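Example for tutorial group B:
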């Protein structure tokens, strides 16, 4: 279907929704909210289309001017320059319209559960995992998201073996979904006396939070074990068997929670993480079934894939999926220029989606 046909359909849908919204009292609250949101999204596209129509009209008028044999050379030269500039604007507008017409990922609006784990590199990997976890906390503050720590397992030197948080807010998954994968760090550890640069890694998983009604977990599919909570080095945190290990038998997914003193609260947290992991598993299956041979440049989101390198001696962070390097690593770790990275990743993903649809 041509771009113009798609634009025509969008204008028709805009007209339909506006007629439905003339009498909002006749609509159910949920239906009213959904139509209002859809209309807001559509109006963004129709405004772009109206701008394109005006530019097309200008191009047509200038072309007529060039076709007129009585047009003098000076005016003709000006018209040619304006036509070239307008054509570039039209091309950019068409690309923006095409991006806006792409199917939206319905999971983009979801909250997330983010999991950070130390990878290769010993104590330094644990310290880097803690730094990444802190970076997502600062990013949440910047975006006015709520960052709820769910589980933290510390190392003996203050790093994290693993840490989990529930991030709640507007379009969280859409902004963080490209973070899944292996994050590599190059820096001189505090414990390094010779000043030698070490390379370590941490893995990040970003899971869209699943609602209770979306993922039904039956008791018969669960094995729940309780045990005594322990801190770094096996040190006991409390004297009750409050820690919970939940095994989802059909998928083999295992979740452990021990942050809370209450066994019930640990179980609630564990089930929330379990639902999100099962949802993510189903999401991956759905995506694979939809396009088995698709290989996006922005990566698969697999936790085994190296996605980014943080080079502290040179003060730069490089995303390997889009070959983008930012020379403001300190600011990036504070969450200050994170949006620049996300916008480039999103643009690359959109361009790949356009290729797959063509």
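The residue assignment follows.
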């Amino acid at each position: 279907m041509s771009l113009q046909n798609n634009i025509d359909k969008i204008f028709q849908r805009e007209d339909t929704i506006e007629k439905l919204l003339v009498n909002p009292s006749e609509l159910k609250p949920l239906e009213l909210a959904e139509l209002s949101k859809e209309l807001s999204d559509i109006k963004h596209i129709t405004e772009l289309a109206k701008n394109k129509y005006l530019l097309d009209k200008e191009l047509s008028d200038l072309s007529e001017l060039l076709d007129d044999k009585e047009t003098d050379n000076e005016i003709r030269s000006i018209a040619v320059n304006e036509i070239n500039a307008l054509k570039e604007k039209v091309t950019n507008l068409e690309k923006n319209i095409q991006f806006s017409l792409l199917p939206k990922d319905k999971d983009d609006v979801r909250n997330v559960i983010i999991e950070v784990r130390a990878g290769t590199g010993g104590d330094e990997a644990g310290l880097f995992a803690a730094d990444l976890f802190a970076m997502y906390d600062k990013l949440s503050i910047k975006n006015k998201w709520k960052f709820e720590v769910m589980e933290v397992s510390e190392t003996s030197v203050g790093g994290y073996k693993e840490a989990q948080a529930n991030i709640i807010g507007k379009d969280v998954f859409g902004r963080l979904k490209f973070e899944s994968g292996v994050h590599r760090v190059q820096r001189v550890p505090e414990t390094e006396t010779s000043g030698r640069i070490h390379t370590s890694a941490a893995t990040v998983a970003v899971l869209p939070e699943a609602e209770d009604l979306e993922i039904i977990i039956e008791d018969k599919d669960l094995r729940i074990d309780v045990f005594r909570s322990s801190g770094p080095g096996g040190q006991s945190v409390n004297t009750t068997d409050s820690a919970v290990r939940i095994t989802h038998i059909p998928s083999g997914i295992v979740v452990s929670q021990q942050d809370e003193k209450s066994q019930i609260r640990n179980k609630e947290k564990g089930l929330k993480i379990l639902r999100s992991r099962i949802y993510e598993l189903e999401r991956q299956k759905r995506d694979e079934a939809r396009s088995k041979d698709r290989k996006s440049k922005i990566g698969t989101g697999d936790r085994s894939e190296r996605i980014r390198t943080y080079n502290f001696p040179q003060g730069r962070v490089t995303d390997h999926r889009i070959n983008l390097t930012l020379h403001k690593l300190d600011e990036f770790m504070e969450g200050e220029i994170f949006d620049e990275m996300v916008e480039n990743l999103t643009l690359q993903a959109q361009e790949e989606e356009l290729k797959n649809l063509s």
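DSSP finds eight helices and eleven strands in the chain. Compare this with the pattern of hydrophobic and polar residues in the output above.
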